[in-house]
Design brief:
- The chain has 377 residues and is an alpha/beta fold.
- The radius of gyration is 21 Å and the shape is globular.
- The structure holds pyridoxal-5'-phosphate (PLP).
- Pyridoxal-5'-phosphate binds next to helix 3.
Length: 377
């Protein structure tokens, strides 16, 4: 069976080289006569796998020595709570920039756990189609929080806010290793793996050591598993880690290294994103348009609408818009281009073009879009 081009927002496509390498080792990993799926996490065969994954994160992201690299579970969403429980403990106040669903959820979770949340900026006024400019963050905050790439809205920070002594926390779930990033500018970074790193099941956390508090110092009632110290003190092996996912993650990191590291990914991703945005901005008759503002555009997630998305709310217009979107998604899938349905909060379509997506895949998408525009003008 032929493989499709998968534009899913997550879990998302993985490099074929990685999938093939996993398949080749499925029945017998490195002469052990077992699959990595079947191994004890405490075994001699498994230990080097998780150690190598951590070493590769450190290498590719240039992680300074005073940061811990952790592999935890619970996805990006659990980090919304862990950040609040572990960091919101001195003044009990935190600053959040609201740039869409994931930032809002993080702020709501912190609030629920008793943190005094200040929404210091928001792009809600234009349906989160841009990133607010907040060059400097000041105040007696325990931490400041941003979502660096907004998977649903398709926006991305082109700057890092200056927070002085306030630790900056960033959700990089959908842009981790898509570009070089200066880790030293952040107190804590986290990324659910299923967008750019691995299958679902592991979350990468990079935390400055001085922000790791004793479990008793976390907010009252914080479960053991939600204390960063629990994981830091046990090399991410306090309990059973998602062994196989971490193994695949290691393979993806070696693939990234072989393709030029973070710099190589940026070059590759810019090429793909430029190709798609160029078409969206310059297509004949403006059949399609991007929903995000120049200067805030994600290289990873590209939402777009057709000319039938007019904003009109009468029944006929809404029905026509839905008909065209459904037709696009259906015909694209038949052409081997899958998971292009837009998120309901933006509408239209969304192409997620993570590291593993090829330029050929993006070109095939644009060719399809041209044909569809002609047929439905
Ligand atoms: C997908 C995503 C999340 C949620 O991740 P889960 O692992 O499903 O909890 C959080 N933040 C961003 C930016 C995401 O893209």
């Amino acid at each position: 069976m032929a493989r499709v081009y998968n534009f899913s927002a997550g879990p998302s496509c993985l490099p074929e080289e990685v999938l093939n390498a996993c398949a080749a080792e499925m029945m017998d990993y490195n002469g052990t006569g077992q699959s990595v799926m079947e191994m004890s996490h405490r075994s001699k065969a498994y230990e080097p796998i998780i150690q190598d994954a951590e070493a590769m994160v450190r290498k590719l992201m240039n992680v300074p020595d005073n940061y811990k690299v952790l592999f935890v579970q619970g996805g990006g969403s659990t980090q919304f709570a862990m950040v609040a429980e572990n960091l919101g403990i001195h003044t009990g106040k935190a600053a959040y920039i609201e740039t869409g669903v994931w930032a809002k959820k993080a702020a709501a979770e912190a609030k629920k756990l008793g943190v005094d949340v200040d929404i210091i900026a928001s792009s809600k006024d234009k349906n989160y189609s841009y990133i607010p400019k907040v060059e400097k963050i000041e105040g007696n905050y325990d931490y400041a929080y941003i979502c660096f790439n907004n998977t649903i809205m398709g926006t991305h920070y082109e700057y890092i806010p200056d927070t002085g002594k306030i630790p900056l926390v960033a959700d990089i779930s959908s842009c981790v290793l898509s570009e070089p990033l200066d880790v030293s500018k952040f107190g804590l970074l986290f990324a659910g793996a299923q967008k750019n790193l691995a299958p679902a099941g592991v979350t990468l956390v990079i935390i400055r050591e001085d922000l790791i508090c004793e479990p008793e110092a976390c907010r009252a009632g914080t479960p053991t598993m939600l204390c960063y110290k629990t994981h830091a003190d046990n090399d991410s092996m306090y309990n059973t880690p998602p062994c196989y996912t971490i193994y695949v993650l290691g393979k993806v990191l070696h693939w990234i290294e072989a393709n030029g590291g973070a710099e190589g990914m940026l070059k590759r991703n810019k090429e793909k994103a430029d190709y798609l945005y160029n078409y969206l901005d310059n297509n004949e008759g403006n059949f399609y348009h991007a929903t995000t503002e120049v200067g805030s555009r994600s290289l990873m997630n590209v939402p777009f609408l057709t000319k039938y998305s007019t904003g009109a709310t009468d029944e006929a217009s809404v029905a026509k818009e839905k008909e065209i979107n459904d037709k696009f998604v259906k015909e694209a899938a038949a052409a081997g281009l899958v998971n292009l349905k837009g998120h309901r909060l933006v509408g239209g379509m969304r192409a997620s073009i993570y590291n593993a997506m090829t330029l050929d895949g993006v070109k095939a998408l644009v060719e399809f879009m041209k044909k569809f525009a002609k047929e439905n003008a």
